[in-house]
Design brief:
alpha/beta; FAD/NAD(P)-binding domain; 2 domains; seven-stranded mixed β-sheet; five-stranded parallel β-sheet; globular
Length: 397
């Protein structure tokens, strides 16, 4: 089969792009996506915080695929950009004039020995999985004191602020129940600091101080021993690499993440060991294949992998796809906008908005989003999910 436009991935990016293309009058659009369930993943932070049930984060994929788009419910397994073909697990070979790559990423549990095994124990969890996010609050609720370790890799992951949010909501719960005084809470990350934008980092440093969280930067999780309940981190010092083991009673981990195998192993993949697709950071087009566009978590645009970034990337990709099909060069530009809603307590949120310059990029008039606010919590809890389902996925904003 052959289609004018083929989109690989039916998550936030794929559905948003498909909806915008249909609104622009494109009639020959195919969407390759194997999943039957569509998740609003940002809500998993609140699932892990005991605020909402995980069921609130999901709808059927059929309900969000735009009318008029051909849904190929199959998994892409091979990309052949020279032949302009996508092969699927079911044996289909789908040709295209334009390819839009947005399959998301995969959780690479295997990159940390013992990590997957730890997730099966009653002491470790992660908000990065719909199956595990409810477990997070169960562990937080049962915790009565001891060692709580929250870990995140230094390599790119979706919503890099999410591991901090898990720690803040847990500490807020323990403060309310009296368990925080008997807890030693550690946030260990391979990153070099709490956040890259100084104006927001200053606020987060005060949150860390308020909860008494010990921060360890430049600490990469390299091994977990679930039987001994021990997490081993690697740091680089003057004498080279050093390993340090931390015992835990509760462990929350954001696992390393990478592009899906069919992307990593294709000619469209870049030099990154994680297989990200290289793009012009403003036009989101592949440097060697002008008919290939990528957005969302799988592309190597140097900004945070967030839904807010996808919201700004989608109209750029659509405009540039239409320009290519009309024989013109790309003109729409993405400025690197991303946003991270930091839930710092139940009822408080800091909305960090920024762009490629790593300067604050506020989009809400009048309101000072550079501080913790209750109205921003309401935005996270109610406003953003409603916007996602009813506006963003319909190509309206």
């Amino acid at each position: 089969m052959h289609h004018r436009i083929v989109i690989v991935g039916g998550g936030s990016a794929g559905i948003s792009v498909a909806a915008r293309l249909r609104r622009a009058g494109e009639e020959d659009v195919a969407l390759i996506e194997p999943a039957s369930v569509h998740y609003y993943q940002p809500l998993w932070t609140l699932v892990g915080g005991g605020v909402v049930p995980v069921e609130r984060s999901r709808r059927s994929e059929a309900a969000v695929v735009p009318k008029g788009v051909r849904w190929v419910q199959d998994a892409a397994v091979e990309l052949d950009p020279d032949a302009r073909l996508v092969a699927t697990a079911g044996g289909a070979r789908i040709g295209y004039d334009v390819l839009v790559l947005c399959p998301g990423l995969e959780l690479a549990w295997d990159l940390v020995p013992g990590l997957a095994e730890a997730m099966a124990t009653p002491h470790a969890t992660s908000n990065y999985s719909a199956e595990l996010a409810p477990k997070t609050f169960e562990l937080v609720r049962r915790f009565r004191g001891g060692e709580a370790v929250f870990a995140a890799p230094g390599s790119p992951i979706k919503c890099p602020g999410a591991p901090q949010k898990a720690a803040y909501l847990a500490c807020d719960h323990w403060r309310r129940t009296g368990a925080l005084d008997g807890a030693r809470v550690t946030y260990a990350t391979g990153a070099g600091g709490i956040f890259a934008v100084p104006e927001f980092a200053a606020v987060l440093e005060r949150v860390v101080e308020r909860y008494g969280i010990e921060t360890r930067f430049g600490h990469e999780l390299v091994e977990v021993d679930p039987d001994a309940r021990q997490a081993t981190f690697e740091t680089t010092g003057p004498g080279g690499k050093v390993r340090e083991a931390l015992r835990y009673d509760l462990l929350h981990v954001a696992p390393p993440q990478r592009a899906p195998a069919f992307v990593r192993e294709s000619a469209l993949s870049g030099q990154s060991p994680f297989g990200w697709v290289p793009v012009d950071r403003h036009h989101l087009v592949h440097p060697r294949h002008p008919e290939v566009f990528a957005l969302g978590d799988v592309c190597d645009a140097p900004t945070s992998k967030t839904g807010a970034a996808i919201r700004r990337q989608a109209p750029v990709v659509v405009a540039n796809v239409l320009a290519f099909l009309s024989g013109r060069g790309p003109s729409a530009r993405y400025d690197g906008y991303a946003a991270c809603p930091f839930t710092t307590a139940r009822g408080k949120m800091l909305l960090a908005e920024f762009d490629y310059s790593l300067a604050p990029h506020p989009t809400i008039p009048v309101i000072d989003t550079k501080r913790e606010r209750y109205d921003m919590w309401l935005l996270k809890r109610y406003g953003l999910p409603a916007f996602y389902w009813n506006v963003m996925l319909r190509g309206l904003g």
